[in-house]
Design goal:
It is a single chain. The two termini are 38 Å apart. By secondary structure, this protein is an alpha+beta fold. The longest helix is centred in the last third of the chain and has 27 residues, at 180-206. The protein has one domain (3-206). The relative contact order is 0.18. The protein is globular, with a radius of gyration of 26 Å. It has 5 helices and 10 strands, in the order ααββββαββββββαα. It has a 7-stranded mixed barrel with strand order 3-4-5-6-7-9-10. A hairpin with a 5-residue loop joins β1 (30-35) and β2.
């Protein structure tokens, strides 16, 4: 296992042990992401929970256990060193459920989620959807609600990231303080990291496999025959190749 892959393999475990810092946000956020194909569980200790409000049917919640000042530096392109292990998530609510007007069931969907498991040099982006039942009014100082069984799967990654979760589901409670300005900056960072991860994943998938060696023909006696070029030297030495004209400079 390469050094980069080994570091990526411990991201989920490291995220579980990030020490708690001072809380930025309202109420309590506690989300559990559980693999559907293995025993792995991710329960970030979020230290920041903010949200941005647009209208009753459109808001974005941002959750992270990473240092807020470091994330804002990254959002401005001024990050001086890699981020520590941690998580950054965006929950985009696109429908405020109303009894008698909209479905109210955890099998429905009224939010999309992007969850980034990050370790500075490598990270993976998980995306999915689920249903959140609000317990406050969108637009208030604090937005809160709970979800259960939201779907998540790996949607992009940088080279060296190892997916330990696989297809997963997210459940728990969210409580976030309204902060439109910082939420907008975190949103720009989540979008930029997601785009880069998809490009990196595509480049990783397009790397061609090394060609298989061609089998050498065998002689009737079973001995491997030498190629014609090796079996007998050429009658005359080949002429030296002409120098090619210098190519056009690259842009």
């Amino acid at each position: 296992m390469s050094h980069g892959t080994a570091r990526a393999a411990i991201i989920v475990l490291a995220a579980l042990t990030v020490p708690a810092c001072s809380w930025i946000g309202g109420g309590s956020t506690s989300l559990r992401i559980e693999s559907r194909t293995g025993p792995e569980v991710l329960e970030p200790r979020y230290t920041t929970a903010l949200y941005r409000y647009e209208d009753p049917n459109s808001l974005e919640v941002y959750l992270t256990d990473l240092p807020m000042n470091r994330l804002l530096e990254a959002a401005e392109g001024q990050l001086s060193e890699p981020l520590p292990p941690g998580n950054l998530a965006r929950v985009s609510v696109f429908l405020n459920p109303r009894a008698g007007y909209t479905p109210i069931a955890f099998e429905s969907a009224n939010f999309a989620v992007t969850h980034i498991v990050v370790s500075g040099e490598v990270y993976g982006v998980y995306t999915g959807a689920g249903f959140i039942l609000p317990s406050s009014t969108p637009g208030d100082d604090t937005f809160s609600g709970r979800t259960s069984g939201a779907n998540l799967k790996l949607a992009g990654f940088t080279d060296g990231f190892k997916d330990l979760l696989g297809p997963s589901e997210m459940s728990g409670a969210i409580a976030a303080t309204r902060d439109d300005a910082r939420s907008e900056r975190l949103g720009a960072l989540v979008s930029a990291m997601s785009r880069y991860a998809r490009v990196a994943q595509a480049e990783h998938a397009e790397k061609p496999a090394p060609p298989a060696p061609e089998p050498k023909p065998e002689t009737p006696s079973g001995e491997t025959a030498k190629p014609a070029a090796e079996a007998a030297p050429p009658a005359t030495p080949p002429a030296p190749a002409a120098e090619s004209a210098p190519g056009a400079p690259r842009g």
